[in-house]
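Notes from the pairing session

We agreed to fold both candidates in a single pass and log them together. This is the raw record for the first candidate, unedited. Please don't reformat it; downstream parsing expects exactly this layout.

Candidate A
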Amino acid sequence: MLNKLAINTGAPRNVAGHFISAAIATSIVAGALNYRRYENAEISKSELVNDTLKKSLQGAIATSSAIATSNYIGQGKIMHAMTAMSVGAMGVYGTQKVYEKLELQVNKNKEIEDAK
């Protein structure tokens, strides 16, 4: 029955290769947008780098998850596809949470330095 749900998504694509391609593409986009914000004095150089890295990782996770999901749909493996989507969503969410904790620690360290 699950094979009847298969959609022709073309030849299976390489997930790892798309992770790297997506990281590069997202770095270009996020870097350009963050650089504009940096030039307008909206963010610091450190924020430019950190946000660009975070978004690059999130874009790579989301894209490779989407490729894996599409590959599984093409094979009629719907549960695998749903799992790949869930793993991707959790990867993006987890990355966000890690960066929030790192940001809190950096702010805490700045407060300690400023208090000296």
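Candidate B (folded immediately after A)
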Amino acid sequence: MTKPVGGARSRSSFAGVAARPNLACVRLASADGSFLLFALRRHLGWVTGEAGIARDPVEIESLPLLDAEGDAESGGYRVRLGDQLGDGGRWWPAGTSEQDLRERLEWIVLQLRVKATAYFARHPLPRRREAG
């Protein structure tokens, strides 16, 4: 599945992709030098999504997981889509066909892009301290 991601205005903002069984993650470079990460996870017949923000180009699993009211750590953090929608650690059914799965994953990606990006704007990473 390939879809354009809002905010990825050029190839220079695309910073990487990771895929392994039951996980797909894309990393985008932001104008402020941080990185946005969007991940899709699958377990048996269920799918979910997470989003993260980090100072460095790290793997999403290395970021601490916060609930919807968490505070940003200095190096980065990640949030679950379910928390952003008020549903906690929610997983959604993958469906019974490839078309069902595709539609569910597209819905998750759209929700992640809208909800997580707004959350990160309200809870930015603290500025780095200058060495001195």
